[in-house]
Amino acid sequence: MSIVQTTQSFLTQLFYLEDKVAIVTGGTGVLGGAMALGLAQAGAKVAVLGRRREKAEATANRIAEYGGQALPAPAGVPRQG
Asked: With a threshold of 0.85, does the pTM exceed it?
């Protein structure tokens, strides 16, 4: 087994999220989108939250292209003041 296969196997066991649900707030941004994709690759079903519907849908579609399950969930946190 190569070092890459060993590392992938280790990471899969360490971050196994099959049948779990992850909610990623800020999932429409660069960092949140990468986190959402990583969680989906680990087996989680992902809800992508963000203020812009189009970006949430784009992130969910990207996850689906990689074989994951995602739900775009446009949402915002109102400011109090």
From this structure: no
